Amino acid sequence: MFALVDCNSFYCSCERVFNPALEGKPVIVMSNNDGCAIALTEEAKQYVPMASPIHEHMDAIRKHGIQLFSSNYTLYADMSRRVYEVLSDFTPDIEQYSIDESFLSFDGFK
User: Fold this and answer.
1) Taking a C-beta distance cutoff of 8 angstroms, is the pair 7, 101 a contact?
2) Within 10 Å of residue 26's Cβ, how many Cβ atoms?
3) The sheet that has 67-70: what strands, in order across it?
4) Domain 12-89 in CATH 3.20.20.70
5) CB within 8 A of 31, min separation 6: which ones?
6) CA-CA distance, 105 to 84, in Å (whole number)?
7) Inter-axis angle of helices 73-88 and 10-17, to 10 degrees?
8) Going residue by residue through the chain (110 aa), what tens digit of pLDDT does each one get?
9) Measured between alpha carbons, how far is 30 from 89 in angstroms, rounded to an integer?
10) Which H or E run contains 39?
């Protein structure tokens, strides 16, 4: 048996861990140099498309109170490591696919 673990809106979720007031609010994490939207919460997806230039959506961002964050890859790598550590409590047979996705094998799991 295999499992795929894929964290939802991972970069945004990491920002929410350290700022719980963001829970339930629209959040966007921007690319290097803050040019494009690279991670969006469900609340933000209805107003700004993924990978779109932020400057094209500033009216919607202001109108809907969307919180913008510069990408913080040090934070995301640390949080990814923490998720991996939790997953390794369930099985040692893990293949990390990306910063927020892993495949787990549960062969012999009872």
Assistant:
1) yes
2) 22
3) 37-40, 27-30, 67-70
4) no
5) 37, 38, 71
6) 14
7) 90
8) 899 999 999 999 999 999 999 999 999 999 999 999 999 999 999 999 999 999 999 999 999 999 999 999 999 999 999 999 999 998 999 999 999 999 999 887 66
9) 32
10) strand 37-40
